Backbone:
């Protein structure tokens, strides 16, 4: 059921977002459905949960890593669920009044709010640290969308960015902390962590990281800047996110983890230092705000620190007070935000200097604000008073060092709270209005009853719970016990007798009232103080400095790294690829191999050296292409020496074809490479090229030590052994290609098909369909109109084709195969081309080149797939043998049709190449699309 | 593997890399070809010192050259041919469009670089954290009486 509730939130929210503006403000009615259902369900379970029967649910996620979404509803979670969903209902009803004139995007807010509530429920229901982190980041993301919903407002965008960057990175730190703590404790489950009691320096680091996460989320110094900024969001959103829910995620996490961790390492010290400072600075800054919403925002910062101090000490009596503050704060802060929204909505301002009191019909608003502010200030008989009283009492009885400091901080912070609460009330009453401003508020229309009702109910709730604490007592007691199993909480009462805490409360109230009375002097003091610290960098400025600095660095480095120059890219890639393996290769270098293996290598190497260097330095294109061909032919000779006849055959035919292709294309291009401005200096290019050469040299030597003869490696030996019995072929290379590694070959010919299609599409891109018809009808005219060439071509063409077919069929047992056969046929086609031009090539093949290409791929693929139909595996082998009498026995295996497919693909590739470049005349410029020529 | 072959592969790689870093597409194509040869040389010599062609005729297995690198190299040769054809088509197209086969710099990337130089100033306006925030209800007020 727990998971169902979460999913319901996300589905409902997604639906409302999807329907969008057609819903208008009614979106909030739908949105209210989710918290209403949750509250109804919680009401049925509350009794049993309060008795200590937690509801659990486990959804396996990655069992191998012990990752699961563990959900658990105990009394503490129930308090949080009540806050999230209860205040959620109030906020949704309030939003109906607030968005009386919905703008585009209002309904989206409602949907996002529902999703946010779902994420928040996930945080408070998660029993697994990693699942908690997941929902935690979800609240960051949904709150980002909520704050930045008005995406045309730069302030909203900035505030949203600042919120997600701060809380999101805090969340990441927290994740690291979770892992450290979870690993040393041996469990990631919150409910088991209490008994696991981890320790050690790892846990100390983990604690610091987790606290950073909690501090960022709950806007503690120095991460507080995002919370006031987030007040640009519409007020209902602020009321919900920044008063009742999201910021309390950090407090909740501290409440959960303090029992096992507070007595360890840095936890308590860190919480006392950070939250004490935050409580006082937050209160101090709240006191000087003119914008009522900002006043509440800084007040929230201060109150969150208050809760951190109560929950973070790892003592049940302080935590009990914390739970009361949690409930009280949720109620009064939501009510106060709603009041600000009402004033803003009716008068158009939230500035206390522009408010001059309200006319008739505003009494409910005034009473609501006074009640809620009194609860915030801790005046009896409101719930806020009880909460503060309990906190003071528990702090006075603290048994750890730092207890006295906490008492002092609580007193000072509370005096400031009384003071800014008073400022709020005075502002609402119009006492802070400046006389030279236009008097708007006295004539502002009174809000409707529905608009005020949610705030009024929350304020009255604070009063009711204060007068009759028994309303919350049972819940608070059970929640305390769910955090601290050994807790013996005292009952929550309004009157706890005459004690030190009561005296301190009196001191706080009196001092606070005095501060209000002396507000002009305080203001001067604040101005002086503000001016004094102005030159110091505040967290907001530091944050934006980091953000703009990072983005500037990113752009600068993008400008350098992605500079649009291909030579520079290649230089960087080659340089890195060569430099990185060089060091490990040099260190693993063992022995020098022989200088020269066989003397036959020497002349071959000499040819390669001369031709390769020549191809690199010559300035004539055709010469370079021919020299590359020379390297290829020398390589073919090398293959013969190495005992690789298939390779030699392939290389010979390829080199012939490639040279023809080069000539076909290069004939259009300028003869020489013109000098052009180099993107990279010659020295840098030389250095990188040299580095690549050295690295390859060293790597070759190192790899030589790794193996020296075939028998060492089982895989090649196995292939030699199994070639005849299993592959039914004695040419092992061919058997590997079409049988053992047939799938690789299938992939390879697919690449060839793609390359061929790409080449033809590119080369013919500038043509129009009419050209094609003209080409078809064109009469054949060869390169060389020599009778001798023509005659020999006619003679040789069929014989070479026959040879290619022989290679294809014999390839399984002799040198040859589909690749070699296809390339040989390609050589025949070249001959045909030289004699009769592209028209002759077209005439001699009735099928279009792409038909042959695609047909070949189809045949190979089908051959590979057929065994699947009979229940065998892909490319399963089968063979038959025919007795052809005097011609001998012809054996055919299923590898043959596969090889035929390869053959056809290669033939198709060659045909495509002639189709692409074979025209005698290049298309004229005028035939190019206009956009290109201009 | 011998020092001669290792040095030869090194040379082929160095020449190929040098050509890759040029602006002329046809030189880049030549470079790709040389790199391919260098790689094949490495592949074949990594299979040992060579031997009888791997066509089974009853000789002891240790006499044969290693067939696996040969199969790999054969694949590599054909693929290099396919790539060469494609690159030649690129060069051909480039000639159709510009009359040359020069690889130009990407203008848009250059513009990013220049844009950054022009917009080096801070993009974040300095908001006073204590000033009144703009109301999200701005458009509502127009309708207010």
Residues:
């Amino acid at each position: 059921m727990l998971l169902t509730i979460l999913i319901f939130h996300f589905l409902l929210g997604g639906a409302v977002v999807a329907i969008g503006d057609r819903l208008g403000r009614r979106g909030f009615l739908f949105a209210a459905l989710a918290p209403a259902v949750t509250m109804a369900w919680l009401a049925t379970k509350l009794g049993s949960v309060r008795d200590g029967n937690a509801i659990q649910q486990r959804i396996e996620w990655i069992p191998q890593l012990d990752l699961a979404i563990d959900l658990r509803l105990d009394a503490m979670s129930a308090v949080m669920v009540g806050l999230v969903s209860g205040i959620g209902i109030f906020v949704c009803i309030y939003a109906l009044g607030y968005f009386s004139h919905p703008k585009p995007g209002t309904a989206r807010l409602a949907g996002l709010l529902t999703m946010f509530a779902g994420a928040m429920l996930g945080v408070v229901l998660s029993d697994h640290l990693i699942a908690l982190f997941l929902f935690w980041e979800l609240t960051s993301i949904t709150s980002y969308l909520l704050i930045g919903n008005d995406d045309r407002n730069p302030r909203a965008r900035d505030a949203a960015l600042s919120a997600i960057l701060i809380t999101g990175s805090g969340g990441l730190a927290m994740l690291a902390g979770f892992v450290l703590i979870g690993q040393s404790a041996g469990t990631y489950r919150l409910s088991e962590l209490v008994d696991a009691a981890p320790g050690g320096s790892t846990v100390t680091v983990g604690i610091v990281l987790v606290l950073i996460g909690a501090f960022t989320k709950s806007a503690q110094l120095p991460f507080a800047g995002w919370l006031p900024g987030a007040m640009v969001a519409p007020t209902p959103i602020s009321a919900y996110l920044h008063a009742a829910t999201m910021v309390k995620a950090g407090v909740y996490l501290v409440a959960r983890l303090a029992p096992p961790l507070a007595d360890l390492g840095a936890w308590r010290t860190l919480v006392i230092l950070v939250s004490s400072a935050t409580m006082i600075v937050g209160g101090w800054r709240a006191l000087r705000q003119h914008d009522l919403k900002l006043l509440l925002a800084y007040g929230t910062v201060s109150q969150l620190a208050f809760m951190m101090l109560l929950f973070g000490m790892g003592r049940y009596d302080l935590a009990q007070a914390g739970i009361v503050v949690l409930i009280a704060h949720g109620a009064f802060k939501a009510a106060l935000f709603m009041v600000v929204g009402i004033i803003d909505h009716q008068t158009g301002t939230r500035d206390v200097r522009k408010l001059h009191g309200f006319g008739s019909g505003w009494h409910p608003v005034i009473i609501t604000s006074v009640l809620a502010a009194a609860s915030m200030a801790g005046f009896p008989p409101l719930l806020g008073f009880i909460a503060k009283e309990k906190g003071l009492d528990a702090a006075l009885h603290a048994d750890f060092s730092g207890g006295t400091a906490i008492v002092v901080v609580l007193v000072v912070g509370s005096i400031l709270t009384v003071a800014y609460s008073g400022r709020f009330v005075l502002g609402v009453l119009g006492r802070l209005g400046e006389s030279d401003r236009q008097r708007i508020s006295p004539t502002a229309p009174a809000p409707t009853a529905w608009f005020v009702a949610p705030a009024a109910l929350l304020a009255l709730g604070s009063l009711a719970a204060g007068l009759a604490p028994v309303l919350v007592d049972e819940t608070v007691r059970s929640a305390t016990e769910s955090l601290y199993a050994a807790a013996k909480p005292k009952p929550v009462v309004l009157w706890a007798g005459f004690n030190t805490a009561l005296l301190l409360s009196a001191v706080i109230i009196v001092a606070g009232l005095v501060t209000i009375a002396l507000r002009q002097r305080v203001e001067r003091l604040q101005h002086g103080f503000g001016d004094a610290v102005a030159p110091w960098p505040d967290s907001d400025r530091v944050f934006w400095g980091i953000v703009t600095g990072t983005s500037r660095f990113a752009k600068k480095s993008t400008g350098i790294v992605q500079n649009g120059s291909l030579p520079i890219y290649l230089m960087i890639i080659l340089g890195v690829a060569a430099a990185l393996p060089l060091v490990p290769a040099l260190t693993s270098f063992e022995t020098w191999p022989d200088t020269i293996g066989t003397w036959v290598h020497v002349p071959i190497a000499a040819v390669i050296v001369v031709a390769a260097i020549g191809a690199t330095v010559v300035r004539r294109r055709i010469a370079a292409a021919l020299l590359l061909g020379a390297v290829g032919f020398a390589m073919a000779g090398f293959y013969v020496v190495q005992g690789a006849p298939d390779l030699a055959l392939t290389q010979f035919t390829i080199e012939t074809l490639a040279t023809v292709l080069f000539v076909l294309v290069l004939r259009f291009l300028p003869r020489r490479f013109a000098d052009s401005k180099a993107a990279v200096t010659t020295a840098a290019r030389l250095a990188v090229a040299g580095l690549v050469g050295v690295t390859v040299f060293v790597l070759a030597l190192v790899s030589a030590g790794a193996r020296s003869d075939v028998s060492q490696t089982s895989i090649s030996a196995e292939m030699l052994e199994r070639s005849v019995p299993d592959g039914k072929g004695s040419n092992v290379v061919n058997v590997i290609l079409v049988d053992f590694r047939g799938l690789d070959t299938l992939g390879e010919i697919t690449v060839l098909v793609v390359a061929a299609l790409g080449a033809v599409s590119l080369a013919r891109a500038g043509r129009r369909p009419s050209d094609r018809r003209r080409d078809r009808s064109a009469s054949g005219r060869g390169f060389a109109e020599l009778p001798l060439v023509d005659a020999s071509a006619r003679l040789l063409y069929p014989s070479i084709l026959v040879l290619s077919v022989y290679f294809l069929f014999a390839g399984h047992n002799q040198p040859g195969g589909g690749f070699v056969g296809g390339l040989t046929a390609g050589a025949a086609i070249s001959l045909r081309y030289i004699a009769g031009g592209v028209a002759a090539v077209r005439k001699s093949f009735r099928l279009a080149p792409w038909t042959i290409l695609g047909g070949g791929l189809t045949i190979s693929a089908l051959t590979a797939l057929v065994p699947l139909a009979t229940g065998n595996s892909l490319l399963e082998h089968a063979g038959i043998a025919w007795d052809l009498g005097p011609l001998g026995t012809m054996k055919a295996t299923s590898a043959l049709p596969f090889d035929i497919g390869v053959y056809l693909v290669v033939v198709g590739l060659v045909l495509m190449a002639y189709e692409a470049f074979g025209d005698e005349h290049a298309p004229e410029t005028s035939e190019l699309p206009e956009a290109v020529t201009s | 593997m011998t020092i001669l072959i290792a040095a030869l592969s090194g040379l082929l790689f160095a020449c190929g890399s040098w050509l890759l870093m040029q602006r002329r597409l046809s030189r880049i194509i030549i470079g790709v070809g040389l790199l391919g040869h260098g790689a094949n040389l490495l592949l074949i010599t990594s299979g040992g010192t060579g031997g009888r062609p791997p066509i089974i005729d009853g000789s002891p297995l240790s006499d044969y050259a290693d067939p696996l690198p040969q199969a790999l190299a054969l694949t590599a040769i054909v693929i290099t041919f396919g790539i060469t054809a494609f690159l030649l088509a690129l060069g051909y197209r480039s000639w159709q469009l510009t009359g040359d086969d020069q690889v130009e710099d990407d203008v848009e990337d250059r513009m990013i670089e220049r844009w950054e130089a022009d917009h080096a100033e801070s993009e974040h306006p300095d908001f006073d954290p204590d000033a009144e925030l703009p109301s999200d209800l701005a458009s509502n007020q127009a309708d207010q009486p």
Observations:
- The longest strand of chain A covers residues 55-62.
- Chain A touches chain B through 169 residues (CB under 8 Å).
- Chain A has a mean pLDDT of 84.
- The first helix of chain A runs from residue 2 to 19.
